[in-house]
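Quick review question:
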């Protein structure tokens, strides 16, 4: 009987201590922890395998992602036999607009930003400016305009919702995601398996696309133009 009482008392003490710790996490402290966990997105590099599944188009290849402040570049390439002759299949650049360059076709698609679409989502800013934090089970949810961010109990970002687009991040190790999936209208369009993260600051020249003078530029392409 004494053992049962002792175990019960230990349980009560632990429960009370956990409750106190949860109550100590004010909204400002939660925001602070999350902003700290997102700091890796300011300047980073990631490499691995990408699977693309677009209309009439599927691709499995290597990728190299580089980010510096609000600029983001993704190079998609085939490493070639034994990695000796890499061939660039696509270069994607996010700045004030979205640029997709296909070297083999000498085509540059330009998606210009408008008032409804903001390509430069500042996740830390969204967290800071969110007035309310929705706490659901072991998740924290932030909303600002059309963007919703979901974080797990370790304050890691696990979901971004933006209009009809969802980005799921998982397989975290040391607060870094190693899997990322993008879907639109509930259909998966891209998945990234990350092999390596690094945090060397990229040169600004990296965020300029080197294109031939005879490149064909198509602005805000429609579906038919993308499928050519």
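Suggested answer, residue by residue:
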């Amino acid at each position: 009987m004494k053992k049962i009482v002792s175990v019960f008392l230990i349980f009560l003490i632990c429960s009370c201590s956990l409750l106190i710790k949860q109550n100590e996490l004010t909204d400002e402290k939660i925001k602070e922890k999350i902003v700290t966990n997102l700091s890796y997105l300011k300047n980073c590099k990631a490499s691995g395998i990408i699977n693309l599944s677009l209309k009439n188009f599927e691709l499995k290849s290597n990728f190299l992602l580089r980010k510096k402040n609000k600029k983001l570049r993704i190079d998609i390439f085939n490493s070639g036999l034994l990695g000796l002759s890499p061939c660039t299949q696509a270069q994607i650049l996010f700045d004030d607009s979205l640029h997709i360059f296909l070297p083999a076709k000498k085509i540059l698609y330009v998606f210009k930003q408008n008032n409804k679409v903001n390509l430069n989502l500042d996740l830390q800013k969204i967290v800071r400016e969110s007035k309310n934090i929705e706490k659901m089970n072991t998740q924290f949810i932030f909303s600002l305009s059309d963007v919703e961010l979901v974080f797990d109990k370790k304050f890691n970002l696990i979901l971004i919702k933006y209009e009809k687009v969802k980005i799921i991040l998982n397989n975290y190790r040391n607060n870094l995601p190693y899997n990322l999936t993008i879907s639109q209208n509930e259909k998966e369009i891209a998945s990234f398996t990350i092999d390596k993260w690094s945090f060397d600051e990229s040169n600004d020249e990296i965020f300029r696309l080197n294109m031939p003078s005879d490149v064909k530029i198509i602005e805000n392409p429609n579906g038919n133009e993308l499928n050519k």
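Why it works: The first helix runs from residue 2 to 24. The CA atoms of residues 7 and 196 lie 45 Å apart.
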